[in-house]
TrEMBL record:
Superkingdom as given in the UniProt entry: Eukaryota
Source species: Tanacetum cinerariifolium
Protein name: Zinc finger, CCHC-type, retrotransposon Gag domain protein
């Protein structure tokens, strides 16, 4: 989890990384962030 938080700040494709590897890494990070934020309803409720 901490690794994913660090990765969020440096999400860019490396010179040695093919686009499908980058996309897999990006989608893994996306799933983590969505789980951390919660649903849209939960998010809206927290900011009311």
């Amino acid at each position: 989890q901490e690794r994913l938080k660090r990765e969020y700040h440096s999400i860019r494709q490396t010179n040695t990384e093919i686009s499908t590897e980058f996309m897999q890494r990006f989608l893994r990070l996306d799933r983590f962030l969505r789980a951390a934020v919660g649903t849209e309803e939960e998010h809206a409720k927290n900011f009311q």
